[in-house]
Amino acid sequence: MDPALLLVLCLSCLLLLFLWRQSSGREKLPPGPTPLPIIGNILQMDVKNMKKSFSNFSKVYGPVFTVYFGMKPMVVLHGYEAVKEALIDHGEVFSGRGYFPVSERTSKGLGIIFSNGNRWKEIRRFALMTLRNFGMGKRSIEERIQEEARCLVEELRKTKASSCDPTFILGCAPCNVICSIIFQSRFDYKDQDFLTLMERFNKNFKILSSVWIQLCNNFPVLLDYFPGIHNKLFENIALTKSYILEKTKEHQESLDINNPRDFIDCFLIKMEQEKHNSQSEFTMENLVSTVSDLFVAGTETTSTTLRYGLLLLLKHPEVTAKVQEEIDRVIGRHRNPCIQDKSHMPYTDAVVHEIQRYIDLVPNNVPRAVTRDIKFRNYLIPKGTAILTSLTSVLHDGKEFPNPEKFDPGHFLDESGNFKKSNFFMPFSTGKRMCVGEGLARMELFLFLTSILQNFNLKSSIDPKKLNTTSISAASISLPPLYKICFIPV
Questions:
Q1: pLDDT tens per residue across span 110-127
Q2: C-alpha distances in angstroms, 372 versus 103, 321, 375, 376?
Q3: CA-CA distance, 413 to 385, in Å (whole number)?
Q4: SS3 of 457, please?
Q5: 3-state secondary structure of 68
Q6: What is the pLDDT of residue 4?
Q7: Burial of 379 (0-12, 13-18, 19+ CB in 10 A)
Q8: Whether 173 contacts 145, CB under 8 Å
C-alpha cells in the first residue's frame, strides 16, 4: 500500500476514534457547544476574556454546561446557586484538584494548592493549624502586619509626593508578612534576596495569567517541543524552591523543638515526629512545595488587590474622601489602625469588600475536579472531571449587586449605612478548597489601606475621569492596568 495512503487511513481512523469517544462521553455530561476535533471549543471562546464567553454560553445552555479545552472536557458552574450547590452542599465531592500539565511540572502534586486526597487534607490541616497557632486572626499576626504597615508608610514617604508606579512597594508589604511567618523575620526593602524573590513572584504572576499558559495546559506538547515563557516560569520556581531549601537547612542547624520560631520550624518538628512513618506526607520536598504555595497565595494576590484598590480610589476621589473622614473620626492621626477599628468603620469595610468584588481577581477560580462519580442536576459527572466555577457570575450577579460593573461601596451597606454581609461575596472561593490565607488577606487589606489613607492623600498624574480601571487580563487572573500615583503626606 502506498505510504501516503496508509498515513491518511491511520489518521482517519484516529479521528473517527476520537469523535466516537468524544460523542459517547458527551452524552453523560451537561450540554455545551459542539467541540471540534483535537482543539475542542477554543475557537468558540475568547481566551483573553473567558468570563464573557462563559456568560454567553450560560444563556444558551444554562448554569451547568460543558466546554472542551483541546480534548479535555470541563464542566462549568455559572451563577450562585450552582456554585453553592457544588462547593458547599457537595463540598467533599468537588474538593479535588484537576490535572494541569503546567502545575504538575512545577508542584508534582505536592504542597497545598495542587495536591489531592489524603496528602492535601493533611497538609492543609497542618497549615491552617500552624497559621492559627502563630496568630492568623489573632493579635500576634496583627502586630506583624501593623509593623509592616509602618514600614510601608515610610517607604511611601520616600517617594516625596512624586509620581510613581506603586507595583513594587505594594508587593513588598504582603511578601514581608509571609516572610515573617515562614522565615521568622522580615526583609529590608533593599535586601538583594528580597528584591530577587519579589521580581520572580511578580514575573510568575504575569506569566500564569497569560493566554500561553492556558494553551500549554490544554496542549501539553507545547511544553516539551516549543520555546515560550513557560520555561522562564519553570526556572523562576526552581530558583525559588532552591532558596527555600537553603533557608530550611539553616533552620535545621538551629532548630529548638521546644521553641518553634516560624512555619518552617513547625514543619521540621512534624517531620521529626513522623520520621518512622513511611507513608508520612511530611517530607522535605513537601515542605519546600508548601512554603512555595504560601508565598504564591499570600504575596501577589494581596499586592494585586492593593494595587487595583488604589487605582479605584484614584478614579473615585469621593469614595476616598469618605474613607478618610471615617479614619479621622474613628482612628485619628496619632495612632496606628488596628483590626478592632473595622467594626466601627462600616464604610471603609464596605470599600474593601467592594474592591475585591469589583476586581474579580480570579474570575474562574482555581479549577477543581470531582473525587468520585456524581449525579449533579440530573447529569452524570465522572470521577476526575475538571470543574470550573465562575466566581464572576457570583461576584457580579446583577440581582445581588445592582449595576455590578459599577464600583459602588453601597453594594455592602444597608439603608442605615451599616455594613451588610452577602453570601455572594466569594473572592476567596468557598467550601473545602477555600483559600487557606483568607483571614490573613482580609486583615492585610484593611490595615494596609487604612494606614495609607491615614497618612496620604492620593493624586493621579492624569485626570481621574480618564483613568482606565478595566483589567488588562481577564484570562485566569485579573490584573490592573499600569498607572502612576502620587502619595501626598497629610
A1: 999 999 999 999 999 999
A2: 22, 52, 10, 12
A3: 39
A4: strand
A5: strand
A6: 54
A7: middle
A8: no
> Dmax over Cα atoms in the chain, in whole Å?
89
DSSP secondary structure letter of residue 192: H
CA atoms within 13 A on the CB side of 23: 6
Of the candidates 302, 317, 306, the residue with the CA atom closest to the CA atom of residue 407: 317
Known binding residue 338? Answer is no
The residue whose grid cell reads 506526607 is 281
pLDDT over 50 (residue 24) = no
Distance CA 76, CA 364 (A): 9
Q: How much is the average pLDDT of 344-358?
A: 98
pTM for the full predicted model = 0.90
Burial tier of 416 (Cβ tally within 10 Å: 0-12, 13-18, 19+): exposed
The beta-strand segments (E) located in 44-141 are 64-69, 72-78, 96-97
**pLDDT tens track for 166-180:** 999 999 999 999 988
> What is the mean pLDDT of the segment spanning 427-449?
92
CA atoms of 54 and 8, how far apart (whole Å): 36
Predicted confidence (pLDDT) at residue 478 exceeds the cutoff of 50: yes
Could you give the 3-state DSSP secondary structure of residue 97? strand
Q: How far is CA 244 from CA 40, 160, 185, 306, 335, in A?
A: 39, 35, 14, 26, 36
Amino acid at 455: N
Looking at residue 119, its pLDDT comes to 94
Q: Does the pLDDT of residue 23 top 70, yes or no?
A: no
- List C-alpha distances in Å: 288 to 98, 112, 122, 129: 21, 11, 15, 18
Contact predicate 364/476, CB 8 Å: yes
Distance CA 308, CA 322 (A): 18
CA angle 454, 455, 456 (to 5 degrees): 105
